[in-house]
Amino acid sequence: MSFNSFGNLLRVTTFGESHGAAIGGVIDGFPAGVEIDFEAVQEELNRRKPGQSKIVTQRKEPDTVEFLSGIFEGKTTGTSIGFIIRNTNQKSKDYNHNTNVYRPSHADYTYDKKYGLRDHRGGGRSSARETANWVVAGALAKQFISQININAFTSSVGDIFMEKPYQDVDFSKTESNIVRCPDEASAEKMIDKIKEIRKAGDTIGGTITCVAQNVPVGLGEPIFNKLHAELGKAMLSINAVKGFEFGSGFCGSKMKGSEHNDVFNADGSTNTNLSGGIQGGISNGMDIYFRVAFKPVATIMTNQQTINSEGELTEITGKGRHDPCVVPRAVPIVEAMTALVLADFYLLNRTRQV
Amino acid sequence: MSFNSFGNLLRVTTFGESHGAAIGGVIDGFPAGVEIDFEAVQEELNRRKPGQSKIVTQRKEPDTVEFLSGIFEGKTTGTSIGFIIRNTNQKSKDYNHNTNVYRPSHADYTYDKKYGLRDHRGGGRSSARETANWVVAGALAKQFISQININAFTSSVGDIFMEKPYQDVDFSKTESNIVRCPDEASAEKMIDKIKEIRKAGDTIGGTITCVAQNVPVGLGEPIFNKLHAELGKAMLSINAVKGFEFGSGFCGSKMKGSEHNDVFNADGSTNTNLSGGIQGGISNGMDIYFRVAFKPVATIMTNQQTINSEGELTEITGKGRHDPCVVPRAVPIVEAMTALVLADFYLLNRTRQV
Amino acid sequence: MSFNSFGNLLRVTTFGESHGAAIGGVIDGFPAGVEIDFEAVQEELNRRKPGQSKIVTQRKEPDTVEFLSGIFEGKTTGTSIGFIIRNTNQKSKDYNHNTNVYRPSHADYTYDKKYGLRDHRGGGRSSARETANWVVAGALAKQFISQININAFTSSVGDIFMEKPYQDVDFSKTESNIVRCPDEASAEKMIDKIKEIRKAGDTIGGTITCVAQNVPVGLGEPIFNKLHAELGKAMLSINAVKGFEFGSGFCGSKMKGSEHNDVFNADGSTNTNLSGGIQGGISNGMDIYFRVAFKPVATIMTNQQTINSEGELTEITGKGRHDPCVVPRAVPIVEAMTALVLADFYLLNRTRQV
Amino acid sequence: MSFNSFGNLLRVTTFGESHGAAIGGVIDGFPAGVEIDFEAVQEELNRRKPGQSKIVTQRKEPDTVEFLSGIFEGKTTGTSIGFIIRNTNQKSKDYNHNTNVYRPSHADYTYDKKYGLRDHRGGGRSSARETANWVVAGALAKQFISQININAFTSSVGDIFMEKPYQDVDFSKTESNIVRCPDEASAEKMIDKIKEIRKAGDTIGGTITCVAQNVPVGLGEPIFNKLHAELGKAMLSINAVKGFEFGSGFCGSKMKGSEHNDVFNADGSTNTNLSGGIQGGISNGMDIYFRVAFKPVATIMTNQQTINSEGELTEITGKGRHDPCVVPRAVPIVEAMTALVLADFYLLNRTRQV
């Protein structure tokens, strides 16, 4: 029972505060013999890192990962893979005003009550900086299950939605704009929206859609580790996430069985895919797709009433460098967690028949 | 690593097929000294059981639980609690036509591919009959954390939504109608809808909302066992669930930070509760509320095209006794899983400070 | 985290008190497609059951296992296997004198202090009756890894040791005498010893040796789940066990490296096998052998001073039907736990290379 | 399921090869609010480090631990504690002759077969260097459960045994000689023995005894996580360990029940303590004591026949700097693992009653 671990057979255990010496983790159960492309790992980190564009936080952190074990002469050895990412650009002073004050809709209050104390610098462990660890682990997982294609993208910012279905866009376009929406027309509107919000010192929510293609049939365990339940848990672990739906999702709750059922073709594929590629908790070989809702970032640049740890009313104004919208930087995180879930079940599935 | 287990410190491990000899489970980690109200357990099972009203399946199963261990002279002893529920009303013949045929949007195809064989009778392990086990475990959990009030209810059937916010209804009314919606006006419309759907041999989806009140501050672990991530995983484990959202949920993704932040009162409570009682993965003492989407039941009474295990196209018509809408019977299941999650974190929280 | 569970990928979770309604368990992760020989399972239970010979307890219990799930048309389905064994011959009255009294070197005192209450009938959960569950699970594991031969036998009773090395005896002889020692000359002496001890109202300890042959190379994880560490934990879980050694064991601690090293042959086998078939926590294909020490049974038929739960000094005399020596009945338990450990690592080993 | 993790509620996950960049780990579940004495941690590492005396390996490594997270202003925060120890004195060239050759009674052969490749430098992951990680984690655990006194010491080297019972020695003397035996007369003989063995280019085994005093009643779980079973697993995880016994151990197997039972005193203590402080898997408040057998180090300075990965016979001679006897440096490792086990059960025990 480890509350900083994710996964079963392929299991990542992490540590690190946003303003401590380093973050990092241990990847356990990674199979031996996988040739690691270190540049590809760093590229994934670069997609997540701060300061990459005008619409994300202007903090500059190189986010360079150092692998410490488990890889020898370019290949995984089957032993645990330790890694760290040094924290280099912490401006702890930006948070001195927070020592004693609970920022609204942050984790300051709950950490203090749960643990009796907290590292107030930059949110400490509750900072989304932690997700850089997940991107490292997910990048390795992607290389292990490289036959599966995982593509996440920004599907809405505020009330601006990508209008095309995912089948009609080209995923290779996702990285061609800074909001990571593969539909250029929608992307432009989303970027404008975020710029406007940032100018107002405010923040905005959004959604990410993720599609996994070429997934083998049979991944997922049918009772308490249903494939979609693990994906849901993975997504709900990402900072700021408020909701998860797969396949028909919440819309499916309004439908009739005669509309919702996916009719089989002779080859086992289905005509429609309202199931979202998962039936009874197990992948059926069709595209897996799901949607993740992100709330607006809690740190805003305007004045808010709040309390301090003595229960006195006080005021707080956001300082430092923050994201006006978390969604563009969360795209690689969604992909990383999806890769971890799928790789875990992929390994496990080798043990389910005699 | 047990794929038929749920929970960490309080952990339930289950077994059973819908048409086997019995279903049952083992509840491990339940603390010693809890006085068990056996009638209350049976009442929860009765809320879930088939045949209880005109709008659910007309199968009759008494669903009587037999406790085999872990309770002595009416009190839990701290040892594992074994229990079984005999299967008494299996009409396996109803499923003979399914031996070789994959029912659309069921788990027949994926089980066969994953395991190389399957128990075709009534869905076998993939049947929602399994959830009776969860209701037993959840009923015990409820008795352990009896100070927390957990109330789930039907919040929509198809496109009929309960219009009042949960704060404006009386949860004690939930059981006063067969659809389990505490707002009588909405309940009537929902019941009519389900009757109409059943008459057409069709099925319909819906949503359940669940509210947990009087939850202590501090429950939940902040990284990979966030309280809402565990609740999400629990809900997504329930048969037919397609989505989960808590607090502001998917609506929150359209909001601005200045609208979404919950301002603190001097006592640590918040003015609004878009956070849904959870901040940074940890309960903050406010109401926890979330919403769960259920797809329509896949078994419909009309003819559908499908394939058999040889990959030949064939037709199938639903037989036997099935639910036109799974939502009313799922209300106690949602509550049970919520109780299991909260009780688990409640125990764990005793270990987080020196 | 389940404290009534054993194993990782193949995982058994158990319940049951010696004088409750039933004992039983859930076997999770058992691969699909294994044809189950139910008679072989019952035979293993018969080897463990009370009343089977003159030198074990004269209690009569049929110990009939009922499988409730996970097996369909004679084959495992990959879903969890539930089973129960009804308790039929409980004479709870035999234990009425114990309600309030702590039997020396039993678990009465520690259970009471740990849980605040206890089921005093026959030791409750601390009874070795629990091990019948393990024999069921182990019997299934044996059938899954049937190519591996696991043979345990009584290697000493008190100070009577089997003098021949295991290589010089015929394991098929183990079942031909009631003490389960494959060397007939030693067996006779052991049986006489136990009869003498029983007559005196006393009990005696002993050791069991277990040999696993034809084990594939590569089983075991090299850091915290070393093959011998898991075997050791498994053996130390058996009631009355006080020690475990494998290969050269405690004798090895007196040796020099030049004596102890096992020199390789060209085919990877070794000339000697002081390593006991395990190097660096991983099986090397040679025989795995280990020895387990059992203390004398704590229940004796003579008067002993003790205390009750009020801390008052009192006296106690063993009543009921007890084993004068636990070792003969523990032989199938040692084999069952060995089978569970090996089967678990056997499955796991499928996931260690790309 | 993590095979580089140890513990349940308090859980350490490690990584690192002897000749990689660093070793390290993550300590999860450590309660918040423990003030950390960093010097005490380093002192424990110094007790384990190479080069500390004439009778251990002459390798010089500072073994300086760097904590990266989970501790703020000198106190634990309840979040995961990451740490690393840089490898500074690797002479990888010493191992070039091993690239392709399997050292007898090492893990070279089994790693190669299990993973299909291996890091041959210094044993890679199979090196006892890993245990430095355990010492770090154990040092923190000791500080959490500081009321419990844990004292391990060298109780034999080859056939030289400490003759006094542990009750008759002064544990504060353990550190006053380089072999770590608290009985000076025995210590001298042991040191002479090791010097003689080293001069011959050979190695020798030995045993360590460990005593835990002032342990609260109630630690340990009664079925599969018995206190002694977890201690046994912990000890059997240490490199070169071949056996474990607690209380009366293997000697107990020769005794009669009337000799072996521990009679209660009115206060719940026992007159004798053949149980070794554990009854039914649960601590009873008496001293816990156990003994651990270490085989002689496999690397010897004389010529041995062996094979290479092509299965060709070849010869090997130990090079580099190695321990003639592993026991003196293993004393702090035994204590560290004991502390981890006890601290884990100490936390868990808070959850066992309502």
TrEMBL record, chains A, B, C, D:
Q: Which residues bind FMN?
A: R125, S126, S127, N239, A240, G280, K295, P296, V297, A298, T299, R321
User: Which reactions appear under catalytic activity for this entry?
Assistant: 5-O-(1-carboxyvinyl)-3-phosphoshikimate = chorismate + phosphate
GO BP annotations of the record are: amino acid biosynthetic process; aromatic amino acid family biosynthetic process; chorismate biosynthetic process
What superkingdom heads the lineage?
Bacteria
Q: Which UniProt keywords apply?
A: Amino-acid biosynthesis, Aromatic amino acid biosynthesis, FAD, Flavoprotein, FMN, Lyase, NADP
Q: What class of enzyme is it?
A: lyase
**A Gene Ontology molecular-function term?**
FMN binding
Cofactor(s) the protein requires to work: FMNH2
Q: Name one GO cellular component term.
A: cytosol
**Sequence positions that bind NADP(+):** R48, K54
State its Enzyme Commission number(s).
Answer: 4.2.3.5
Describe how the cofactor binds.
Reduced FMN (FMNH(2)).
Pathway membership, UniProt: Metabolic intermediate biosynthesis; chorismate biosynthesis; chorismate from D-erythrose 4-phosphate and phosphoenolpyruvate: step 7/7
What family is reported? Belongs to the chorismate synthase family.
Spell out the subunit comment.
Homotetramer.
In UniProt terms, what function does this protein have? This reaction introduces a second double bond into the aromatic ring system.
Q: Write down what this protein is called.
A: Chorismate synthase
* Protein species of origin: Polaribacter aquimarinus
